[in-house]
Amino acid sequence: MLHTLQTIALILVSSNFVFAVPQIVPRAVTRFAAFGDSFAAGIGAGQPFTGSGPDSANNAGCGRFDGSFNVKLRDDAKVHAASFDFLACSGATAQDVQNSQLPHLDQSADFITVSMGGNNVGFGDIVNGCVYRFNGIFAPDCDQALNNASTRINNNPDFLDPVTNGLRAITAKAPNAKVYVMGYAKFWNATTTQCDNVSWNYWQTPGATKMTRALRQKMNDLLDAVNNKISTAVQGLNNPRVTFVNYDAYFQNHRFCEGGVNEPQGPNEDRPNMFFFQLNTPVGSVNSFVQPFSPASQYLDWIKAAKTASPNTPVNPIYAGLSTATSASGGLPLWIAKIFHPTSPGHVAISSAISGKIP
Ligand SMILES: *[C@@H]1O[C@H](CO)[C@@H](O)[C@H](O)[C@H]1NC(C)=O
Ligand SMILES: *[C@@H]1O[C@H](CO)[C@@H](O)[C@H](O)[C@H]1NC(C)=O
Ligand SMILES: *[C@@H]1O[C@H](CO)[C@@H](O)[C@H](O)[C@H]1NC(C)=O
């Protein structure tokens, strides 16, 4: 593509056009395809994505936002992609990436990012069971959710195999692409003490689980285990075109429960240095837009609607489902769907981490 543009520039110059030739920024990438889950889709970060592409009809249902690290990367000087296929979809497991997103991949793609595996683990159960307990006494048991996640991470048919298979299928279909595979970032600062005595329980029921150092550490350890498995999957491919990007260090000092910060975030409180959404984190432009917010009644309205729509499906508000393409967050109200996902500044950090790996 670089050559094509240079050729065009030469033609323009040699044809003696009288008007100034617009400055042409070289394009390093011809076709960029972005695969993955809600982290890749950028749910809640910036504005809902309106670009075109092979799966653009599904933009709203997939919770794709223009603050995603993928959109930032598309415009990065090292990428500056001529075309961009935003295939990532909130709620996607590694199997969903292979079955539902891969068919849209154009084999001429020369630059690919992938963020997958998080939905194979059940982090939503952990956030619901151990942190917010949206479903009250029906929320998942915290210890069970942690144990089940750990079991899945270490059970190859649940995690390593589908991630490996998905990556194999992607590299096979786009044989010339450089592929950057994301890990995930740890949510908590697990060494500070101020959260030990604080519950993030949505209903603030007496005796609710507190965000102790031990609990925060357990969640962080699971994240490290996930990153290690994804790294193992990448190494197992033994393919020099595939690079693992662990961006966790970029989130240092930008997690929950950082020193001197009172948790959880209150309504109307701006926290541009925090790289993950909480319930009260404003959506969109972090510094200006604050949603009107009435958590309990909003949740009850939502759960009533979800139960009416599909009476037999257990509802976990953390998961942005693939099925109902009715809102910008896959059928879920954005104030829930965004929780524990990167904010716009978080996505800038992820984009920098990937850019730093591009030669
Ligand atoms: C954990 O796994 C067990 C066994 O599959 C299951 O019965 C239980 O509902 C799971 N609990 C959570 C919170 O995921
Ligand atoms: C923890 O909170 C309880 C109730 O709010 C309070 O009585 C206690 O002093 C707090 N402990 C610490 C170490 O802050
Ligand atoms: C946690 O907070 C402390 C106190 O602000 C800080 O020194 C430390 O770097 C933070 N991060 C981690 C991972 O402990």
From TrEMBL:
Extract one GO BP annotation from the record: lipid metabolic process
Q: What is this protein called?
A: SGNH hydrolase-type esterase domain-containing protein
Q: Where is the signal peptide?
A: 1-20
By its UniProt entry, which InterPro entries does this protein fall under?
SEST-like, SGNH_hydro, SGNH_hydro_sf
Q: Which Gene3D superfamilies match?
A: SGNH hydrolase (3.40.50.1110)
The SGNH hydrolase-type esterase domain extends over 34-254
Keywords noted in UniProt: Signal
Keyword Signal set for record:
yes
An example Pfam family from this entry, by short name, is Lipase_GDSL_2
Cite a single GO MF annotation. Answer: hydrolase activity, acting on ester bonds
